[in-house]
Amino acid sequence: MKTFFKLLLFFVFGLLVLIACKKDTAKEEPSGEVFDPTPYEIIKPTGFPDIIIPDDNPMTVEGVQLGRMLYYDKILSGDNTQSCASCHAPEFSFTDNGKQFSEGIDGSIGNRNSPSVINTAWMPSFFWDGRAATVEDQALGPVPNPVEMNLPWPEAMQKLNAHPDYPDLFFKAFGTREIDSMLVAKAIAQFERTMISSNSKWDRYLRNEAVLTQAESQGFEIFFSEIGDCFHCHTTILFTDNLFHNNGMDAAFTDLGLGEISGNANDIGKFKTPTLRNIEFTAPFMHDGRFETIEDVVDFYSEGVVWSETIDPLMKKVGQGGLHLTDDQKENLIAFLKTLTDESYIENPDFSDPFEE
Amino acid sequence: MNKLIRKTKHMKKNLLILMVLVLGTTLAFNACKKTDDVPIDPVNKDATVLFTLNHNVNGEQLVFDSIQYQNASGNDYSVATLKYFVSNITFHSTNGSSFVIDGEHYVDAADPSTLNYSPNVKIPEGEYSSISFIFGLDTLKNKNGRYLNPPESNMEWPPAMGQGYHYMKLEGKIDSAGTIKNFQAHTGQSMGNPYFIEVDLPNSGFTAEGGTFEIMLKMDIGKWWETPNQIDLNFMTSMMGNQMLQQKLHENGNDVFSIEITPILTITD
Lengths: 357, 269
Hints:
heterodimer; A: mainly alpha; Cytochrome Bc1 Complex, Chain D, domain 2; two-stranded antiparallel sheet; 13 helices; 4 strands; B: nine-stranded antiparallel beta sheet
């Protein structure tokens, strides 16, 4: 009896310790349904930076799956004709089908080229002018934008709340059936954070699983030396510094870029450095999609750089109009750039349209 | 009587259970509490140091992006970018020994959050005749892959040209007889030459007797172009592999820093 009593005491205290330490995540609905999402762990590829997940949007399997549905669902546009994937399509490494500017639901045209959704988990800012600081903030933008999906958020909420499946899916992901724009953004952000490209030939070369051709390796030396001087901005394993630069495309600017957002005259004409990963699929190029091919881009850096007041000090050869690469150097540089192509990324079934399965 | 004794015994037992319960519950709730109160040791006379970084040009507080500075070569110039590493700050004792803060700090003069450096060490009690540090990274630290996260990772120095990281990116514009040109003073390990700078700070005697000190490291950007080598910024471009320019900046770097030590808290016993 005594022993039993002691055991009981131990058990009670043990329970107390556990209760005191456990975070309360499970939540019960009046219907008796329990909110208990499964944590989703992003596996960071070797050599990549740490991934910072916001405290208020932890990754869950249910959240990622919901985000993937919302990404591909045309319900989020005013006339049910467009989804995020319309302008960020997988076969073009999540850009807009080779278009210079994207067309909104009513045919209106934007003024910036659709950027690639790739390795967003490491981006500290979004849009060419950096006006959104998180994927969540970015995802809030295109739905109500009149020249894009043109669906005001209150209407989007009504459509989602009246949908036969979404309220249950939001409960499973976030513990509530009351859908709001922030939860939509959070789900899409969770999905986009899983969209990692780390299996290009270049990655395999770094892992000693591939050998570069002579052209690729000569291109590598141009890229990573002051001959091409690409690496200062397209730096690290991400191939972007995620900072803003005026790379010398125009003598004067109508689109002010970062300058529009910061209000600082020294920021006029600065745009965010895009990653070079998968550029074989993401033509046309630059914030306004002015260059149709990679060859055009290389020609620009070689012969077409022009002076303007805010030009980046890293544009060393602006006085000579550019780098003046030889034809061989250009070819080799492009060969190297194509080692950044990752077909497994655009073909990844986890990132594909769930409505087509 | 017997009954009474038994009752007392019973009460004692109940009391014991109650005590165990109270104790147990307290323990249970404390089990999760983090304790980070550090006991104050009145005998310990080690000193706490907080470093701050300050940037000026010829004694004037740095203003970015304005062509308002001049050097001995007659260049009118601006500063657009100033990013660099300081590492291994060393306190040299009067008894001949030295205390090294084995670590590095990344500075972006445009980012206020990088202008303070609070290493998690205390300077042992004693008299120090001087302070020195390494501008950049020594050979042990300057290895590829040391930094995976930005902003430090963005200082990468391509393996094809050496290895490791830029020690400094100092960039801006020059008004060269009406034509505006870009310059970039990028230092780092180049073609096998380490080029990091061991900076001895003048007038940096320091006594550690407890308390907290703010140590301000002040860079005068203008001094990069002066002694012993006068530098014309018109030629300060594409210089990462230029051994002559790397060497000149390496030599000029020893006197660009000065120091100010201010006690900000003194523990009295």
